[in-house]
Amino acid sequence: MAVLDRIRTPGTTGGTAAKGVGLGLLLAAVATVVWSGSFVTSRGLHDSVPPVQAAFWRWIVALVAVAPLALRETWRQRALIRRHLGFLTLASLLGVTAYNTLVNQAGLDTPAGTMGMIMAASPVVMAVYERLGGRRLGVLRVIGMVVACAGVLLLVSKGSLSPGLSAGAFWMIAAALCFGSYSALLRRRPAGLGGLALLFTTFVLGALMLAPVYGVSLAVQGGFEARPGTVGPLLYVGFFSSAIAFFAWNKAISLIGAARAGVVYYLQPLCVALLSYAVLGERTGPFQILCMVLILGGVVLGAAGGGAGRRRLRS
Predict the structure, then answer these.
(1) What are the domain boundaries of the chain?
(2) Span 174-201, pLDDT tens digits
(3) Rounded Cα distance, 296 and 80, in Å
(4) Phi, psi of 240 (to 5 degrees)
(5) How far apart are CA 264 and CA 256, in angstroms?
(6) Helices of type H across the chain
């Protein structure tokens, strides 16, 4: 109904609505491409920075990056933040604390290309939540999700009918569930809460929840050596993959919804495969290419279904 209300509001043209959809798709694509690089950095740091420590410093860098822009808005909306602290804590746990830590953990023994393909399952979680909320997805979009999921399952099982999940695959499936749940949760973002205030608050809460585990990691595993090969990737995931990508993704969901943004997210396996080959020298064989074809085929079908849904709304 909210979409229909916006379309039928006097003075709101179809061109304006189309621009909003176009901007949302563009922002979702920016976040997807930038996040693809984070899978490569997670894999690249697997033998030099413990997963929890990599996650903790990612969010510290992100906080430093967004603080100059977000502090004033966050302070102005402090009463609203206190009222919705439960929502913000859950969003932080799913999207900040758990998601990135699980990705880093998977990177210990899982190629970056495989990580990216398994993460393609997360938009299915987004769409399921939206369907439970009463939103119709359309036949083509559902078929697209099924096809893409088939590609992910084929990849995880390595073609076997009785797959045994590796530890890395298990961590990545858990990460996909966390990220899909986080994205769906954003549709319930408190009215009036600014994008920068949301970003800064979730980063603070996520880093605070990681701090005790970070302390345990330091005591048990020791710290890591600060050198260009470790600091550079952490700066990338902190500034680009966190501050910029999360802002773009959150804005995209506010414009086009989690399910439609999730269709764009299906392009991530291709981006990760190209980056992992260029940076890490990971090769993609015929089996992985078959899985990627299925996943990208699901993208095409899902995008077609989204377009059909928009035409029905306008009619």
Answers:
(1) 40-314
(2) 998 898 888 888 878 888 899 889 999 9
(3) 41
(4) -80, -55
(5) 11
(6) 2-8, 14-44, 51-76, 78-83, 85-92, 99-106, 112-119, 122-132, 139-157, 167-185, 195-221, 228-238, 245-256, 258-265, 268-280, 286-314
